[in-house]
Specification:
Order of helices and strands: EHEHHHEHEHEEEHHEH
Oligomer: single chain
Distance between the termini: 11 Å
Strand content: 5-15%
Helix content: 40-55%
Length: 210
């Protein structure tokens, strides 16, 4: 089964991708990971991507799609795959179509911005050991101090309120229009926010007919 996971930053795409991957026995293809792997392996298209990255430029859509195509040709994708992080724009979706890459289901995780903002701005990470906390959902025993090593907890730049708001704006402007694009193709499936990871995953499996 060939699946795309859509959703705002902080919607839980990575977590759900992991669960679907285990249940269906298909790999998750994360754009960032395969881009780094292609650069590290020095494949022709990986070297092309590296030339843009070294110059501090955005890697063009066609190069990203080429790297995805290269990855999808590997044997573990024979029974399907989950794309997480791409397409981000209509232009990327159209490029995938041109390369003959089609999908059985596009899952859109629907979560209110206010929930995402609370979820992301509340995250804290230990500066020393990397342990994760959340000021409301999983607070440390002592405020600002890691339970595991006593290190200082910090808020990542990505989780600061102004950054989260900006990332949500970019998602609504650039990525959300993909819902209409895939709805017109009859493959969009909206996944409501059930609050819990397992409940959401059960709904996803139901929508996939599994």
């Amino acid at each position: 089964m060939k699946i795309i996971l859509l959703g705002a930053p902080g919607a839980g795409k990575g977590t759900q991708a992991e669960l679907i991957s285990k249940k269906l026995g298909i790999p998750t293809i994360s754009t960032g990971n395969i881009l780094r792997a292609a650069v590290k392996e020095g494949t022709p298209i990986g070297l092309e991507a590296k030339s843009y990255m070294d110059a501090g430029k955005l890697v063009p859509d066609e190069v990203i799609i080429g790297i995805i195509e290269e990855r999808l040709a590997q044997s573990d994708c024979a029974n399907g795959f989950i794309l997480d992080g791409v397409p981000r724009t209509i232009a990327q979706a159209e490029a995938l179509e041109r390369h003959g890459i089609r999908f059985d289901a596009v899952l859109s995780l629907e979560i209110a911005d206010s929930v995402i903002e609370e979820r992301m701005t509340g995250r804290r990470t230990c500066h020393a050991c990397g342990a994760s906390y959340h000021v409301k959902a999983a607070p440390p025993k002592q405020e600002g101090i890691c339970d595991k090593c006593g290190g200082e907890l910090e808020q990542r730049k990505d989780d600061r309120p102004e950054t989260v708001k900006h990332r949500l704006e970019v998602y609504h402007n650039e990525t959300e229009p993909l819902k209409g694009f895939y709805e017109a193709k009859g493959v969009l499936k909206s996944v409501p926010d059930f609050g819990g990871i397992e409940e959401t995953n059960e709904k996803i499996m139901e929508l996939l007919g599994k």
